[in-house]
Amino acid sequence: MKTDTNVKQDPEDVDALNAQLKPLEAEGRIEFLAERFSGRLLATTSFGLQAAVMLKLLKDHAPGIPIVFIDTGYLFAETYRYADHLQEELGFEVQVYSPAVTAARQEALYGKQWEGGPEGMDDYARVHKIEPMNRALRELGADVWISGLRRSQSSARSQRGFAEIQSKTLKGYPIIDWDDEKVERFIQDHGLPRHPLVAAGYVTMGDWHSTNPGSKSSKESTRFNGEKYECGLHLDSRQQDFQI
Question: Helix, strand, coil shares of the chain as percentages rounded to 5?
Answer without folding.
Answer: 45, 10, 40
